[in-house]
Each structure stands twice: as structure tokens, then as C-alpha cells.
Design goal:
homodimer; alpha/beta; Rossmann fold; seven-stranded mixed beta sheet; four-stranded mixed beta sheet
Chain lengths: 237, 237
């Protein structure tokens, strides 16, 4: 029943906000015309209102109606009646804190389990996983729990970047960070490069878009992911 | 009374572990010959034992005795009797979780307030600040609180990197992340490039080492920090 579309990033270099993503959204949503937008992640600290307007631009141009959860008198009721949800990127700690504070974790889980399409980019993709434990963001606020929606039984690392062999920087590479994650957590990590996305429906999980990613399993060497690769078996754990 | 030495990184590119740091440690510790090492941050997921051995190498070569808090029957008593403390880098979430679990926050605060020299690198420098809110690390475990030692009344961002104007990566720059931090937190952030350190004693806070850093104050443009710059006024807030 689950229908989930997770983008590594809202924007790829040299294109407009969500521009590259629109064909995937159009194909995924098919007949659905309304999207409930969750602006809580506030990229760059912008207001919920400005963020919603940013999202509304390309969506309305493509014929979708956008409601903001921020404008709803009852956000849980807005989730309960949404035709589809899109959780925008920004800071994952800010996003997850707001989701917990609003009591929205369970309502979204229930709707997605019942077939409501869930879409997210960046932080909005990260929180579709089991926990925020593989976010790249700065912990600028403290959520009551790191537990996330768990719409898929693994973790997502958005904006994945490969180690740079020419770097003189001594901070950890992304691959090292995910290896450290696996010293404390058992679940697989699907790392998506910018331009890549993961589409889940009909019990299938498919990598789409450009540039692919990497699959990190605890205790194993990571494996390369390319567009059209299937990760169906990960859905069963 | 406070005596604090905070390194951005344990290692600069092309040199051995702690090699560049030894002259600063020698000058800072003066007559003190014993260091209590805190290996909790476990860089790369290595064991506490291996990490302590790594640290012991250059320290013993320079004539210091190294005790590991991990070998102490009573870690709090080890802090209470330490001549000096060095908190090693690694994952800040793992480190702070262990510090809270061991009840070590208050004991370290008290000893530092009474004049015991505190040294840290990377994660060990970050936790000397008010919170871990400006770490760069992945949140691979959930600490009970983001509150850190607060030995200085501001936050530290280690491994600071400047925005790369040639980058096509859409993830946030470090400067943007710290700006987002200031949308939710009031305290100054002292960001130190690799090679730089902050030395606090006699009521003075001095930037030392190579490459400097940046000072981020809420609502203001960041200012450049260079070696020998003084941040004494930040100690008074």
C-alpha cells in the first residue's frame, strides 16, 4: 500500500527550485491534484509563509493546489484529510522537533500505511526513515526523540557526497560518518546523491533520477546504487 | 581561574596525530606532567583502548603520563584528582551521551572552575561550549540533553570550512548552518579552522595556531579571526 517518493535534494545545481523534480512528481501523483505542504524545516531560517510560497510556485504552475499545514486550524485533521503530503527540506532537527510537538508522527504513519502518497526532499526524506540519525544537519534544536516516521524500515542519508581524494580537510567523510552510525545502529542506510530519488510503491523500492547513491549495510562494504536499481528486499526487514 | 585549550582538530593534513599540537600543550601545561584522557568520542568507531593508545604515543614521547578515564574504577574520582584533562575528538553525540551517562558534566565543571587545565580537540572542544548545537557530526546516538560543559559562555564550531564558491553541492554551507543555529539560539559561535585553537587563561581568550576562524554573533555578519586575536569580552557574557 505504501507510496513514497524521496528526493535527495529539492534543487540540483543550475536549475530552479524543484524544477528537475516535477516530472517525477507528476508521474507519482497521477490523478491527485492537491498537496499538503509541511514547511517546518525552514531552510536558512526563513518563515513558514515564505517557504510555502516558494513551494507553491512550481506546484501551481504544474496544476497542483497547495495547502500549508501551517495554515490549518487543526494540523492533525489536515493530515487526516490530505490527498498527498510533501515534507520540505531544511534543518532536520527543527523539522522533527515540530513534528513531535504537533503530535504528527502517528497521524502521518497511519495515512501512509493506508496509501496516502508521501513525498519529501532532503530533511523531508530523512524523516521518512527510522530515525534522523543519518542527517547531515546541525543539531540547532533538541527534539524530544530522534525517532522519525519510519515509513521505510531503514535510514536515509540525503545529499550524499563521495570522499574527495584530493581533500586536505581532516573532518570525517560521509562514508566514515555512516560507518560510525553502524557502530551503534543496525539498520541499512540508503544514501542518495543529489539528483537521485527513491520511489516506493507496489512493494517495490526503485532508485530513480541521476547520479544514484550508495547502500550501507552494517558490517559490510558499501555498494553502489544506480538508477533503476531495486531495493525491494529492504522493505521486508 | 579557568584554563582551557581548545583545538579545532587533533591532526592537520600531512602530519602525525597531535604532532602540530604538542608545542601548544607543552606551553599550556607548563609543570604539569599527567593527563587524564577521555576517549569516549571513539573516532571511526574504534575502541576506547585503541584510542587511548593512539593518544598515549605522542604524549609519552613528550614526557607526559596518560591515564584513561576508561581504566578508572571511579571515573568521577578520576576527574576529581586529575592534574589535567584532555577530551579527544570523534563523534560529539557519542561523547556527550557518555559524559551525561557517567555523571561527569558537573565534576568537570567544578574542577575547571577551580583551575584544572582542560584541553580538547574537535568534539572535545565542542563540548567545552554551552551545547553541542554547533557540532558537524552525525547524530548517531541520542544524548539525554544537548547541554555541554559550558566552560566558556559560547559555542564552538570545530573543523570550520569556508564556503566553496566553485561547489555545485546544494547542501548547506557551514556559514549557513551557523546562521540557522542563530535563528534558535542566542550565544556567539567561535568557529575555528583546522590548525587554529583557542586558549583561555587569566581572563583572556586568544586565538592561536594557523588559519584562524570566524566569529558568528546572532543577527550580525561574521567577522574574521586571526592568530593572536583576543575574544576576552566573550568570556564575560
Amino acid at each position: 500500500m505504501r507510496r513514497i517518493l524521496l528526493f535527495s535534494t529539492s534543487t540540483v545545481h543550475g536549475t530552479g527550485y524543484m524544477e528537475y523534480a516535477m516530472p517525477y512528481i507528476g508521474d507519482f501523483l497521477a490523478g491527485i491534484r492537491e498537496i499538503l505542504f509541511v514547511p517546518y524545516a525552514r531552510p536558512g531560517g526563513i518563515s513558514h509563509e515564505r517557504y510555502t510560497e516558494l513551494f507553491r510556485g512550481p506546484m501551481e504552475a504544474a496544476g497542483y493546489r497547495v495547502r500549508s499545514i501551517q495554515d490549518a486550524d487543526d494540523p492533525i485533521a489536515a493530515v487526516d484529510t490530505a490527498e498527498s503530503v510533501f515534507v520540505g527540506g531544511g534543518n532536520t532537527f527543527v523539522l522533527l522537533t515540530a513534528l513531535h510537538a504537533g503530535g504528527l508522527i502517528e497521524p502521518v504513519r497511519k495515512r501512509v500505511a493506508a496509501g496516502m502518497p508521501y513525498m519529501g526532499s532532503s530533511a523531508g526524506s530523512n524523516v521518512a526513515g527510522l530515525s534522523l540519525g543519518t542527517t547531515n544537519d546541525m543539531p540547532i534544536v533538541q527534539p524530544p526523540s530522534f525517532e522519525a516516521f519510519g515509513l521505510v524500515p531503514f535510514n536515509i542519508n540525503p545529499h550524499y557526497v563521495d570522499p574527495d581524494p584530493g581533500s586536505t580537510h581532516m573532518g570525517e567523510t560521509r562514508a566514515t560518518r555512516i560507518k560510525e552510525f553502524h557502530a551503534f545502529n543496525p539498520q541499512p542506510v540508503v544514501a542518495l546523491r543529489e539528483g537521485a530519488l527513491l520511489r516506493v510503491e507496489r512493494g517495490e523500492a526503485v532508485v530513480e533520477g541521476a547520479r544514484g547513491g550508495r547502500l550501507f549495510m552494517a558490517g559490510q562494504e558499501p555498494t553502489e546504487l544506480q538508477s533503476s536499481d531495486r531495493l525491494d528486499e529492504l522493505l521486508e526487514s
